[in-house]
């Protein structure tokens, strides 16, 4: 039933036989069932570390900026991490990793949404007309909000019910993650001062590698 | 170390510390000082790294200092824009030990009666230091309140007898990718160049600064000699100055060259002219008033025209369109 949306090898992980295997081998079941909660907590650590350092470190001069940058950067990182899942799975035959994909993608959305909330509440101080003005006036923010809005349908359709409901349409919809990642990197590039482009350029390079990998797969059939 | 002992007889001359590394030994001493948790190297009286930088001496208090809450020293010296020492706010402090300020000299050039190369002592000797607490407004929409120690720039400039052709003053930061490792990356045009119109430079609020918080400037804040122009965005207040030129034409400044639409030559603090990245109407005051998580909810404040120094400086611009000449 997952035929239209995921590569063949992923199906193994999602399929009934995978579950049966777990049931047949109780020891394996307990270790494997830990992966998801452990990764779930790991993904929260950057946020927890950021909040902890603001609460305890008197050297933090501009905590709002720190949180805004932290959530923006991790939003982008999780987009790229999500895009790594299929290559890792196929290259190293890490079949188990596929079941993390949805959570990683949702974390990208979670951090990006927090980024927006921090910006509206702490940076714009809930002055919505000022916020809308900024969104229209500042190109890099316009592009940021477009990226976030584009992530919304992907986040909403990441559940099993939507996967089933959308059928063949699910996969092209979720391929939107590539242009979204490009938008986010442009957003990053445009807020850089002077020619300090090293960080966004590195993210762009990483995305290009993933795109080339994807393109080769498609060409190879 | 036993390995060293074994090889002691076979050391070739090529293995002896090269002279340039030897000459930079103070950098390592300074770094070691930091690692030991001593105050910034050179703050210690008689510390070799600061031999050429004269002490502040008696510092008088300027009566017109602002009485607003001052930014804690540790924040003002750990949240810095000094791209020559790295582009993250924390980089300048981390890389501060790279910048050796001994010996230091300043070249005076251009339209003046007494051009030449002066040692830092010669530059500073005739001036006594005064502490002035100024607001500092960064173009990135944050601000601090900092007690500087220094003297009016005009007093210094007059000593070199600028001619009638001197319409502007141009300043340059040290160019040395070893001591200022950020210059290994073409982030901005190096050396950093800033400039002022002659009347701005001679204005009594414009300061040549050698210290802050009652001590000599730490390297990350632009040691040993920097400019402070309190009614302009912070990037105009150039750090670690090695050259001052009197010129006839408006200088090409580094930020203006990098993005002419964003950073004008004047760059006066002006809440009514929005920057393409940051609205300039408000600012976040970094003064440590609210601590920990509550600092997240500290209210921004309205930015004042000319950073609150309009009474003193607005007259300089009475016939200038400040929107066009941002
Ligand atoms: C929803 C609308 C968005 C708004 C209003 C917004 C706003 C901002 C702002 C104000 C900054 C800081 C700029 C500065 O310091 O000058 C920023 C930086 C950034 N944003 Fe966004 N953003 C949005 C969407 C996104 C999204 C969807 C992502 C990623 C998934 C993202 C990733 C980033 C990154 C990576 C940075 C750079 C952080 C750094 O410099 O360390 N943004 N954004």
Quick structural gist:
The complex is a heterodimer of chains A (221) and B (326). Chain A is mainly alpha-helical and 221 residues long.
Walk me through the structure.
The complex is a heterodimer of chains A (221) and B (326). Chain A folds into two domains: 1-33, no CATH class; 35-220. Chain A has eleven helices and no strands. Chain A has helices at 8-14, 16-24, 26-56, 63-92, 101-123, 128-137, 139-156, 160-166, 170-174, 177-190, 198-220. In chain A, helix 2 (16-24) crosses helix 3. Mean pLDDT of chain A is 88; it is low at 1-23. Chain B has helices at residues 2-7, 19-23, 25-35, 73-76, 91-94, 120-124, 153-159, 198-201, 254-258, 310-313, and strands at 60-61, 105-110, 116-119, 130-137, 142-152, 168-173, 193-197, 207-212, 215-216, 226-228, 241-247, 282-285, 301-302. With 326 residues, chain B is of the alpha+beta class. Chain B has a single domain (13-261), classed as Alpha-Beta Complex (Sulfite Oxidase, Chain A, domain 2). Chain B has ten helices and 13 strands. Helix content of chain B is 17%, strand content 20%. Protoporphyrin IX containing FE binds next to helix 4, helix 5, helix 7 and helix 10 of chain A. Protoporphyrin IX containing FE binds at residues 68-69, 72-73, 75-76, 79, 112, 115-116, 119, 141, 144-145, 147-148, 184, 187-188, 191 of chain A.
What order do the helices and strands come in, and which of them pair?
The complex is a heterodimer of chains A (221) and B (326).
Chain A: H1 8-14, H2 16-24, H3 26-56, H4 63-92, H5 101-123, H6 128-137, H7 139-156, H8 160-166, H9 170-174, H10 177-190, H11 198-220
Chain B: H1 2-7, H2 19-23, H3 25-35, E1 60-61, H4 73-76, H5 91-94, E2 105-110, E3 116-119, H6 120-124, E4 130-137, E5 142-152, H7 153-159, E6 168-173, E7 193-197, H8 198-201, E8 207-212, E9 215-216, E10 226-228, E11 241-247, H9 254-258, E12 282-285, E13 301-302, H10 310-313
Parallel strand pairs in B: 1-4, 2-11, 5-12
Antiparallel strand pairs in B: 2-3, 4-5, 5-8, 6-7, 6-11, 8-9, 8-10, 12-13
